[in-house]
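Researcher: Please translate sequence to structure tokens.
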Amino acid sequence: MYNEVLEKLKSTPLFRERKHRSHFITILSFRNVGVVDKDVKIKSGDKITATIEQWRKVGAVYGSYERIWRKVLEKHKDLQGEDYGDKEALEQDNILQLGYGLGRTPTQIENDFMEI
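Model: Translation complete:
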């Protein structure tokens, strides 16, 4: 998986950007669990049919790909996208979109969801 992410980062500059990360990781995850063939092109609006078991596997694999994405970019700084250093600003924007006020940390928000 590490080499797969490294090669995708080298060949696809959009994958280096945080704002596009989830799109590419989702596709890699579907391909990894065999829902979609590796040579099939997938677009954002495409519908994919999968079993509950396949969805479970996609969820597990997605987390691994996300950790590997961060690890590769920490090691290969030359592959970091333009928005790589914008994590805090992007988190704050997301917090505001979720309806939380300024100053609330992701941990505080996560604790709110844990109480549900």
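Researcher: Any highlights?
Model: The CA atoms of residues 34 and 54 lie 8 Å apart.
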